[in-house]
Amino acid sequence: MGTEESLVSSPALLRLLQLSSSLFPIGAFAYSQGLENAVEREWVTDEASLVAWLCGLGEHAFGRLDLPLLERAHAALRDGDTEAALLVGERLLANRESRELFEQEQQLGNAFAAVLANLGVPRARAVSGGRGTSYLVSYALGAVHFGIGPALAAFGYAYAWSEQQSSAAARLVPLGHMAAQRVVSTLLLGIPAWVERASQLADHEIGGVAPALAMGSAWHETQYTRLFRS
Question: Would you say residue 19 has pLDDT above 90?
């Protein structure tokens, strides 16, 4: 059986789609990750500027911080070391530039772990409610439990981020659904390179730089009109 046939026939692929779906009930739709303030300040005003914003985040932040740490959390959980995975979560949280982004990471992590517990994942409660609790670690746990390898997990994780950000933009810019799909398509073209580079980064090379994201997410809590959670 070829690689494609093996992948399609594997239950792990279906689980990857489940974990990455916007229907996975964790409340990710309530967050804009700094995008709402970027629209307010007219840093993002149309499809082209949205693509520039998101591709910039993928290239300089998400792909250099989240994706390599996801790989490390996945490896720790695969080896049965929950504590090491939670230390990865603490490192991620230490790199969240604002309180809003920090709390989002923890809240989504707790929600994701609660769904995993409901699905019968044994270690779900061990990764929730603590200092290292994060969406990234909970997602890694789901991937490990359902037999999803690190590369596929990274693709699913990146797709979920791309879809969530494009969905938020459709409500904020405003952006039509066709334009939102073009944005997603552009981001998908970049994901393989992000995942490949993330797998090659040494520990000391991990870290993202996105000053506008940091400022926008910090300013969001004082924004006069807000559609998304702060």
Answer: yes
